[in-house]
Amino acid sequence: MQYRLARWMGATAAALALCACAFLQPVETAQKMIGSPQSAVRDTFGKPTETYQLAAGTSRWIYSKQPLGFEVYAADFDASGNLASFRQMLTEKEIYEARPGTWTKQDVAQRFGLPREPVQYYPLMKREAWSYRLYVGAYMPAHFSAYFDDRGVLDRTMIIVDPLGGDDHSSSK
């Protein structure tokens, strides 16, 4: 009886440790899973916030931590349904690959997920803005915005540093 209990506790501790790693270091955890089936990714990271079919039978699962978090992760699967890559999408490198005049709302959604902040419309500019929170530089909180014209084509992108400095906007007085 004690052996079974100890074995069960050991298995439970191992599962909890795996969950903690997936939560605290998702990219590092996923890199060890490259080649694993979708079921293993779902077991480790849970249900994705969005899924997209991409070219040549590949697919992408989005794991968004927005609106309060600063990350959006993409799990890309090959045509056989095995994990091919897993990365944080809200980085300056990824954002600078956006193509104004070419990309549509669908392209932005597939790259960064749907916005979790309220969508804004600026009537004088005739532009809709999707906003995401991210870190730039040395963990400086910022907002990334994608602006679309009335046809749904990406017009411009913008990164603005958050002058209030992140999550805790209250001051202790």
TrEMBL record:
Write out the entry's keywords from A to Z: Membrane, Signal, Transmembrane
Report the leader peptide range.
Answer: 1-22
The identity of this protein, by name, is Putative transmembrane protein
UniProt organism field = Cupriavidus basilensis
